[in-house]
Task: structure prediction
Amino acid sequence: MTTIKSLLRQGPGPRLSFLPDPDPEEIAETLVAFANSEGGTIVLGAHANGAAGEILIEEEAEGALRAALSICRPPVATQWIQEQTPAGGVVLITVERSSELHTLADGRTLVRSGSENRPLSGTDLQILTANRTIGDYEMEPVSGARREDLDEQVIDEYLEKRRERSPRGTSLPKNTLLQQIGAITDDGTPTVSGMLLFGREPQLYLPQSRVVFVKFADTQPRGPEGAFGYGRREEIAGPLAKVIERAWRVTWEEMDKQAIVKGLQREEQLEYPQFAVREALVNAVCHRDYKLRGSSIEIRMYTDRLEIISPGGLPAYITIDNIVDEHYSRNPRLVNGIYQWGYIEELGLGIDRMIEDMVAAGHPPPEFDAKNHRFTVKLYNKKDPTRIVPQWEQNMNERQIKAMQYVQSNGAITNREYRDICPHVTAETLRLDLVDLVERGLLLKFGDKRGTRYILK
Result:
């Protein structure tokens, strides 16, 4: 269950916006931007630092939302709830990614770019319009398939994962939920997305959905004896969640591994950071163009690099230059299914962390190569020990890094000292920073109330 506390920790981003005042035009702009991108949540009545915005009552919030929806063309589907916080009432407005293209009454078309709403014009708008209907392919019924071609065990596993993510969610009959998420039609026929997510043997109907792994013994496509060929080749089939896990397992088996000892603990270091590889695999499976029937996803392992090749060019307005900041799903139902399964931790942030993890491990950042009908991620294993980022600096915000550096220099830090280091940040946000560092096992908390201090664990 999403909470205000967890939203404040995330801060504004591709799927989260804070609007302290119920301005209908600002709400409408954000609704349209979310609907045209990956969807998201608007926190109405609060600033990103947790401070209260304009005091909201339910009637005011409902009136502002109605006025905002009247500006959207067509209106955006929303769900909203009101919650009470120590600072006052806020309204959470949830928007799903839409299969339609939404504009404002003045003609503007917006998408979400980082934590901002960006208007589209010219070529970007033409590309978005041309690609908007691609997602409908997921809903096409699979010719010759029946409800019995879906694997009940896989469906049950998905439902369990879904309940774990949203324990307070509505419990629906199995077939009703499958219809709701677009996995089967009204008469029970599996759709493309349903077959890919839950099929007993999806590749019998959609052979392009397999993954091919090939390992070469050189930097070029050569086999062990130097002739053109390969050392290992695997074809990986099954529903997409199983394909991701099996592809990762095969790749892990072929990666170089080193055992190192930290303190009394023995750790295994992989040739490539685990998250970077898994994220590239997940992205390839989720975002490839499944309309292209003659091509499979390929994983090519060379001695100096790992290449993951996905059929289909970049969708809509996504380019190599904006791939980190912009987000758009060619297959939104598949993406949501894989997200519910737990293979996507937080939508829209994977590319950022892939880059961070590669650089933190001393490797060059990933290379992205986009062609009209192919997208390739290249991970190089050219580790430079001088570029390795200390583990405690990885995946922290700038404030937390300052706090850790302070503790290293001074032996401990108090809440007062942390506020002195970051004077323009609210006390509650700083407290949550320190709680996060304690939960991650980096700091230990001693004392209580004004006597609380934090030291290195």
The radius of gyration is 24 Å. Residues 261 and 307 are 30 Å apart (CA to CA). The domain at 121-389 is CATH 3.30.565.60 (Heat Shock Protein 90).
